[in-house]
Write a structure and sequence with these properties.
This protein is α/β, with parallel strands linked by helices. The chain is built from 5 helices and 16 strands. A 6-stranded mixed beta sheet has the order 5-4-3-2-1-16. A 6-stranded mixed beta sheet has the order 8-9-10-11-14-15, covered by helices on one side.
Length: 293
């Protein structure tokens, strides 16, 4: 399978402009032979959770809204699969950060709704107290399922950004059969964080391809202008770096995923045979019931 990661700049609230950029990059990926395309988180809306504004709820749309409809039409035009996130509205008062899997027919084959939602944060940057780098909790309801989808001979799982910080999320997908974990991302500093180490670990511990598509460019927050960190990236099932994009440029990063290499890795390290779920019951114990004294 030839996978293309779309790395793009998305302006907050400029949905028409962002969609136009996305469609142009889909055409570029298709020209390069892509069969599957992965977009960053917030590709259509821009990274808006750094702001507090009631009007930002107006960016939400149902799964048949203009942005998703445009992706679906492109998927059908080029006969390929696309994973694109959307600020999904369900009725008048439910909002989710959702990754949608679109098939070559233009149909939505499935959804993943973000399970781990970031709350208000307070950090010191260059000696200044900065708050509200991400206030997702005021905009989204959490999901609670980790579905896996069959795409040809592969099984695909999806996560979204902050989910990656929790090993249980990727492990749920792997136990559900996922061989490729696709992650729309919206992260700023990929140079100073453990961006690469984190994703490499998720790939190796689950013996799966892990691909994360990130944004580039400036986005506003309550206190500062934040720069999205690029470096869209793919790790193979042995945790080895397979492909990496630039830090600050629009880019289409293409890579061929090798099924024989996946099978080789899974016969080299028996992560699922040797795991001991009967010893891990504390993982699913409610936090309030754990004695940490």
């Amino acid at each position: 399978m030839k996978l293309a990661l779309i790395q793009m700049e998305s302006k907050v609230g400029e949905i028409d402009r962002n969609v136009e950029t996305a469609l142009r990059l889909i055409d570029t990926a298709a020209e390069q032979g892509a069969e599957f395309i992965l977009f960053p988180e917030y590709w259509s809306t821009g990274f808006f959770p750094g702001l507090r504004d009631y009007k930002l709820y107006d960016l939400a749309a149902p799964d048949d809204g203009p942005a998703m409809t445009a992706l679906r039409q492109k998927a059908q035009q080029h006969s390929l699969h696309i994973v694109g996130g959307v600020y999904e509205s369900v009725g008048s008062d439910l909002f989710y950060d959702t990754a949608m899997l679109i098939g070559p027919s233009g149909d939505i084959l499935g959804k993943y709704r973000k399970t781990h939602i970031g709350g208000e944060r307070h950090v010191v940057i260059d000696g200044k107290l900065v708050t509200d780098l991400g206030i997702e909790s005021i905009y989204f309801r959490t999901g609670m399922r980790f579905p896996v989808f069959a795409v040809g001979e592969w099984k695909i799982g999806m996560m979204l950004c902050y989910d990656t910080y929790f090993p249980e999320a990727a492990r749920c997908l792997a136990l559900g059969g996922a061989e490729i974990i696709l992650i729309p991302f919206g992260i700023s500093d990929t140079k100073k964080t453990i961006w690469k180490e984190l994703l490499a670990t998720r790939a190796f511990e689950n013996i799966a391809y892990v691909a994360a598509a990130n944004n580039v460019g400036f986005v506003p927050t309550v206190d500062i202008d934040m720069v999205m960190g690029g470096r869209s990236i793919v790790y193979d099932p042995l945790g080895e770096l397979a492909a990496e994009a630039s830090y600050d440029k629009e880019e289409v990063l293409c890579i061929e995923l090798d099924r024989d290499h996946l099978l080789y890795a899974r016969r080299l390290h028996f992560m699922f045979r040797d795991r001991r779920p009967e010893a891990y019951t504390i993982i699913s114990t409610p936090t309030d019931d754990i004695d940490r004294g």
